[in-house]
């Protein structure tokens, strides 16, 4: 039950409603949240938005790799790539998402992939090429961010071609392929835009379509 009405799921198999996996181990999922979006700033305030996201992810033990503004089916959105430790403490999980916020609700398209038994090859290889002094960098969105996982150059997209099977590469590739194919329900697209956390009441209920059927039901994917 999301406002996502279609997307190209070539190569993915549905595991449960709203969740798909592919042969490389990537997990694709769609979500709808009938709440004021949990974003630290409006989308047009890119500096505070990115800084707030970087601090938030670090506070949760991970690291924000990048946050980019864009659009999904013509609706303003923010794309995030983050990394978090695997629950068992061995390796990392990489997550990419589009958050499409409206004033009182949001929909999220998420892709994630985890490292397998062998970890750290990408990081070690890149460090050997650039040297330790140029490997770790202050976070470009929040140089004062503390905690969480370190920010470093090995996560940059320029290295993806050197590590085609790495989970971060896979997550980026899936997002890049699927995003242009996503379609949204026109009712969702017509809702008032997200103006920032202070501009809308918290815990606001999302509008409901007529007929008592809840929010949007997804049509069959293309």
Helix content, binned percent? 10-25%
What kind of oligomer do you see? single chain
Biggest sheet overview: 7 strands, antiparallel
Beta strand %? 25-35%
Summed over residues and divided by their number, the pLDDT gives a mean of: 90
| Lateral strand order in the biggest sheet | 2-3-4-8-7-6-5
CATH 2nd-level architecture = 3-Layer(aba) Sandwich
CATH topology value:
Protein Transport Mog1p, Chain A
The chain-level structural class is alpha+beta
Count of beta strands: 9
Q: Ranges with pLDDT <50 over ≥5 residues?
A: 200-222
The helix/strand order is EEEEHEEEEHHHEH
What spatial form do the alpha-carbon principal axes imply?
Answer: globular
Protein described:
The protein has 222 residues and is of the alpha+beta class. The chain has one domain: Protein Transport Mog1p, Chain A, CATH 3.40.1000. It is 20% helix and 27% strand. It contains 5 helices and 9 strands, in the order ββββαββββαααβα. It has helices at 46-59, 121-130, 132-135, 167-178, 186-189, and strands spanning 4-6, 12-16, 19-22, 27-33, 63-72, 75-85, 92-101, 106-114, 183-184. The strands form 2 sheets. The chain has a 7-stranded antiparallel beta sheet, with helices on both faces. A two-stranded antiparallel sheet has the order 1-9. The protein is globular, with a radius of gyration of 18 Å. The model is unreliable at 200-222 (pLDDT under 50).
